[in-house]
Amino acid sequence: MNLNSLDRRRFLRGTGVALALPLFESFLMPSASANTLKSKPKRLACVYFPDGVPMPLPEDPAYKDWSWFPHGNGSDYTFSKCGEVFAPVRDDLTILSGFSHPSSRKVHGHSNSDQFLTAAATGSHGPYANTISLDQIYAAQVGDQTRFASMVMSTDGGTGTPRGTHTLSFDRNGRAIPAEHRPKRVFDMLFVKGDGDAARRLALSKSALDDLLADAKSLRRKLALSDQKSLDEYLESVRQAEMKVEKAKRWIDTPLPTVESDHLNLELTADEPREYVQTIFELLYLAFKTDSTRVATYQIGRENGFGISDHLARAVGLNLAHSLSHDTKKPDGWKNFGTYCRFLNEEFARLTSKLKATPEPAGEGTMLDNTLLLFGSASSAFHLSRNYPLVLAGGKNMGFKHGQYINNAGSKRQGGAWDGGREPWQQEAAKEDKPLSNVFVTMLQQLGVQTETFADSTGTVSELL
């Protein structure tokens, strides 16, 4: 039995409910195991955050602690307080600077997320057209091997508007693919299969696992000791995810105030936004672990401060996330903005660590070794559509080399607090960026896609391999 047939057909079954299982070595024939190792799944997840990052200038006292980019180059670099949460997975990720999409370098930062994974010339105004996104190119190659070709998620949900998208994913015709923002819907899609009455009973009273325990006990007796432990850990992960979903539901379902006063939104507590982001990442992890999909995107927030995602800053005791990028001249302005970005970095690092801690089912290394994670924004300094802050993690079994900072921006990085005059995106570039599409081509090739180009690429990034 090969990996794909097992992941598609093996479920725990209760009364009208089925739970997908991860791969177990106990069900593999020796010859099949060898074939599995040769064709182990390669996964891709892309995560986006809006509004850029703290970029104090070197002469600013905040530069050492709150500059998002590390200090140094190559393997000889140090994190600031923004990035020190990456330290536990330093050897499994690469920080990149000096990359952006050429067609968007003179676009206002409020319009950037639309083109992050497409490199299309979506512009700031006028006629609008987009192209296929990175994730959907890969989904076209591997999507038929899993239950879901891809998972598209965002905090705000749906598609948003042109130049104000709520989704990172665009189909081959450049049409926005709606993103799911309700954790319960994602959980049910992954783990609750059956008639409507079963779903209703579960929604009213039961855990999705309660009706499955008898089948789980029967299956457990057929497994080797190592797989028994894996099953127990998996069921506990699903249980914990279900509990997080219930908590996150309250936050995402809380209506936003209808007046322009952030202090009136009193129902949101500081912990719930963090719980929400953790829940989305947990569901992404479980979707990969069960081989329900091998492609996922998550847009943490939309640009320009609209939507519920702007309230994620409450996770660190602040108010609106977008305003933090405007308020860097105020006392503790860089610290506040950096603290919020540190929160986002921390949750991405948590996902990376979890994949690293999970052995690849019936394969070599860890799930992270076979998963490529892209994390970043299409703005750096205030509304600046250049020098994107980027992290590429995982994929060691695909040939990626990490533990480095690829500092193409060098010391000529634009930044500083906005002084009320011309914004950084309106100024001449201090140094020309390299096309981010070169990174995309490198990613696609290592994922197994036969291509030499993506959008406006001019080659690959050899330092990553």
What would you say this structure looks like, in words?
By secondary structure, the protein is of the alpha/beta class. It folds into 2 domains: 1-39 and 194-252, no CATH class; 43-182 and 259-464, Alkaline Phosphatase, subunit A, CATH 3.40.720. Helices cover 31% and strands 12% of the residues. The chain is built from 12 helices and 15 strands. The strands form 5 sheets. A 7-stranded mixed beta sheet has the order 8-11-3-12-13-6-14, with helices on both faces. Helix 8 (225-252) runs antiparallel to helix 9 (271-289) and helix 9 (271-289) packs parallel to helix 11. The longest helix is centred in the middle third of the chain and has 28 residues, at 225-252. The two termini are 33 Å apart. Mean pLDDT is 84; it is low at 1-9, 29-38 and 256-268. This is DUF1552 domain-containing protein. It holds the Pfam family HXXSHH. InterPro entries: DUF1552, TAT_signal.
Main sheet specs:
7 strands, mixed
Give the terminus-to-terminus CA distance: 33 Å
Number of domains: 2
Mean pLDDT, all residues: 84
The CATH class of the largest domain, by name, is: Alpha Beta
SS element count, helices: 12
Report helical residue fraction. 25-40%
Low-confidence stretches: 1-9, 29-38, 256-268
CATH topology of the largest domain: Alkaline Phosphatase, subunit A
Range of strand content: 5-15%
Using only C-alpha atoms, the radius of gyration works out to 22 Å
CATH architect. name of the largest domain: 3-Layer(aba) Sandwich
